[in-house]
Amino acid sequence: MQHVLPATGSxxxxxxxxxxxxxxxxxxxxxxxxxLGVEWDDPARGxxxxxxxxxxxxxxxxxxxxxxxxxxxxxPFLQALxxxxxxxxxxxxxxxxxxxGSSNGAIEVEAVDxxxxxxxxxxxxxxxxxxxxxxxxxxGNNPGEILSTCPNIRGLDLSATLLSSWDAVAMITTELPxxxxxxxxxxxxxxxxxxHLPASAWLRLSELQLNGTWTSWEEFTSIAMLMPQLRIVxxxxxxxxxxxxxxxxxxxxxxxxxxxxxxxxxxxxxIVEALKPCTSYxxxxxxxxxxxxxxxxxxxxxxxxxxxxxxxxxxxxxHLQGLEALSLSSNNLHNLRDIDHxxxxxxxxxxxxxxxxxxxxxxxxxxxxxxxxxxxxPSLRILDATxxxxxxxxxxxxxxxxxxxxTVPGHDEDKMKEHPQWKAxxxxxxxxxxxxxxxxxxxxxxxxxxxxHHCSSSER
Length: 460
Description:
Blueprint: E1 11-14, E2 19-26, E3 35-40, E4 51-52, E5 55-56, E6 63-65, E7 71-72, E8 75-76, H1 77-85, E9 95-99, E10 108-112, H2 114-121, E11 129-131, E12 137-139, H3 145-149, E13 155-157, H4 166-173, E14 181-183, E15 207-209, H5 217-224, E16 232-234, H6 249-252, E17 257-259, H7 268-274, E18 299-301, E19 325-327, H8 337-345, E20 351-353, H9 363-366, H10 369-376, E21 382-383, E22 386-387, H11 390-407, H12 412-418, H13 422-429, H14 432-435
Parallel strand pairs: 8-12, 11-13, 13-14, 14-15, 15-16, 16-17, 17-18, 18-19, 19-20, 20-21
Antiparallel strand pairs: 1-2, 1-7, 2-3, 3-6, 4-5, 9-10, 21-22
């Protein structure tokens, strides 16, 4: 079903492969018929500024196009669901010939009782996990229709659809009382929700994915207030440059996992402060032993951002005390002191990803990067997806002690300024002069340098 008169804000898809948002629909002076003013998802498409003959029709960079049959305005939820999951029966024949897709048409086999399988899958009441990714869903259905058709859906993927607002999403989710996981990734451009959304729209939702949707942190926090059970959030690929401070700790302090992969975040201190509502102590336990309190946020993904340094914590409160897993791969960290500072902010860190940072390219650090990182973070169990064995930790710490002893002259106080773990490791293993120097640092004996030379054919 297509909209005869698309409303401003509607999402459209052209058969040529372009997606856009309707910013104007109606007549244009000095022309005949109706026009669509469209803002395209592709910023390189559309050269019109919305003004014609001195009159403004839309306020963005876009195009005027004519309504036509090549424009898709999307389908109601149940139509898309049935198009994908309901296949018409083929009749009374017990055997059918089908072509194996992986054979490129070369292999044809006979299948028995396929109609029984079709009937089983067409029972939409039994559906628990539904993917309508790229199925052009644009709206819900009449009240009660979705609830009576597929009330048991737990996980729903509505990525790359033509949904244009959170109100449209709510039309669907309100009728899915068991919904726990919702994906709205890629190409969805959702306007903020209205103030009259029903409280049941996302009552049981625990996981929300908004990757590649241009959703800002402010927009996310406004919708999160309507999701009291939210635990897992994905906001990757959204061009985020900063996170505003959200004063809704009653909601955010329930979140356990946040994925901010592939954004443009730079300021570590700003990130920590913005995540404060996600990491607060449970206030009702104030005064009880620390072991009985908890920080909710457990895993934070910041890979492929633009973080260049992790400053010392100094007197700043750390809102990441309880963080157990952190991904900082593919950033711009380049100083080994960043690792010491990271441990100050995250003293209970167990899982860390640091691959593809300039950190491993520093001359004095590159050959022993893994050993030094392990020694600098005592709580670490897994580094760059590889478990740290008891022996590897012991060898890494012994190597690190020897490295510090050889490269940092002076007393313990001098060594502690650059290597905060020096005293703790000395207490555990003994000072290098007493226990490891005579063994040539154990691990250092196994580090070799390999030079590869290319030989021409005449030299072979």
